[in-house]
Amino acid sequence: MSISTISVICYYNGHMLRSKTDVTYEGRKAVIAPIDIPVECTFEELISLIYSRTNIDKRRFRLLLNCKYPLSNGNRFQPFPIWDDSSVRRMLNLVNSTAIDEIELFIEVDRVQGLLNQSVGGDVDLFVRDNHNVAHPDYSCGPSMSQVPNYGPHGDDDDECNDEEGNNDCDEDFDDECNEDADVEVDEHAAAFTNLNQILENEHGIYVSAQAPSCDVSNYLDDENLDQSSPVNHHFPPTPQFEHVENLDNAVASGWTPWVQNSIGHSSGEFVISQVFNSKSDLQDAAKIYSIKAHQEFIVVASSKKLLVLRCKKAEEFHCPWKLRAMVVKDTSLFVINKYTGPHTCVNHCMNRDHHQLDSNLVATHIKSLIKAQFTLTPAAIQASVMEKWGYQISYKKALDGKHKALRQLFGDFSHAYTELPRLFSGIEQSNPGCAVIWKTCEINMPNTEVFQRVFWSFKPSIEGFEHCRPIMSIDGTHLYGKYKGKLLIAMGCDGNNQLFPLTFAITEGENTDSWGWFLACIRNRVTKRMGICVISDRHPGIMAAMFDPHLGWAAPSAYHRICMRHFASNFMTRFKDKILKNLVCRAALAPTVRKFNKHMNTIGRINYEALH
Length: 613
Prior knowledge:
Layout: E1 5-12, E2 15-18, E3 23-26, E4 31-38, H1 43-54, E5 61-70, E6 77-82, H2 85-92, H3 94-97, E7 103-111, E8 119-120, E9 142-143, H4 196-202, E10 276-277, H5 280-294, E11 298-303, E12 307-312, H6 315-318, E13 323-328, E14 335-341, H7 360-373, H8 379-390, H9 396-411, H10 414-419, H11 421-431, E15 436-443, E16 450-458, H12 460-466, E17 472-480, E18 486-494, E19 500-508, H13 513-526, E20 533-537, H14 541-547, E21 559-563, H15 565-576, H16 579-590, H17 594-607, H18 609-612
Parallel strand pairs: 1-7, 17-20, 20-21
Antiparallel strand pairs: 1-4, 2-3, 5-6, 5-7, 7-8, 10-14, 11-12, 12-13, 13-14, 15-16, 16-19, 17-18, 18-19
Helix pairs in contact: 7-9, 8-9, 13-14, 15-16, 16-17
């Protein structure tokens, strides 16, 4: 017996709350309403049912729908935006494709145009007294998501075809479109580019980047504002919006966000001939976003520094005519579309969980601003952000690759950063005369090439200032969390006001007897030769061995080693798990007299004899 309706549990008059592994719905006035939805229900029918069932005022609010969508990797859920017929079908198909009996649909609302443009939650009255007497104005509904601006250019400018772009097969039947050495011919579509440099100088800001937070790749002409005799299509810059002041320098004056609006080059959402892009990467990103929004895929027929040819992936199967051909404008980095056939005529029988054009390069562009604010962003959070924006579930590996590319675009490559270390410290020595820099490298079987192992440095003001500090030095190490692991070793002094005094630093391959011995030897040789210094540290075996090595100059009476109270108390707590005893240990360590020290130690012995010994 076939199922004609599917039970959907609707949550409304509240707000959605998302964690890393689950999605819930909260609100002081939150309401739960079950609705039986026909299996062939369309998006418009679903909206009508929800308005009728919930009595939400159509005149004041539009609906933002998200269903609780299960992820494939374990018992985890993320929101899936419902905004068209295909997303409704995908939601209703959860009953057949998973073990879910009832679908959970979270409803949030936005005020319609003409009222306040802000999201509202459970504290706002959403209802009218008699919903059946309310007029039925036009409404729109889209995925509930916060738009994340992207600033800066695309980092990876791949000129050749790769697996993420599509196949690299050249189509010989595409009117000799694989002629990679050809330049744009001056014809009726491209005649304007003969004096393009002059036009660009006169029209500042009319060409935009597709990776910008708000960018317009449309070339739709306005009869009232543009001289129709001009063969160049302009991008008119509206007033830009900014979330942070630091992004002002990177913003592009345009009001089009490619994954929010449908307009590409024409009001129908299609590209147009003679459309201009700042670079090849801008055109590639615009084509990817177009395909993602249309739920279609393309393959790369030809790709070079001067040419880009794209074709529908199902061209042979469904005889889809969609094709795009663009070439570089001579003596510039601009790309212009000189041939275009669209839109798609093929039909997707089903939507995949992932999209071929939603590659790691596009993911990197999307999350760049997120990574800039929080570089520890996890791949799971990136997956959730992509799902919220585009409705596709990318793989963990693709999210991780996108994060690595975004990090490289923002902060540079890790290996390149290490090659810059000699130049950095050379500059430090030149600009800070008297500072100490000591290198240790490994030789390999390559001429004029050495492998970095360690570097030690101390600034001259620190070296001279330590002579006036108390004879105390604290040493410790911390982890480096980049691509290449290692340890940062530090030594700190204590000035006359009991404040920390930065003394020396070192980057080593790790904490061991050799690295700590080398670090302490560098301090003794280049920083200080004071006698009777009290060295405070944890009980790392490498430090203990170095302190008692007579050849390094830190054995008594040249120096005296003491254990750090914080590390000792932490280890004591791990062993005995008693906060009272831990506090007594700290008091004993801070006791200014022998009498008070013995008093605290006796108290520890009365409570726990084993802890005293």
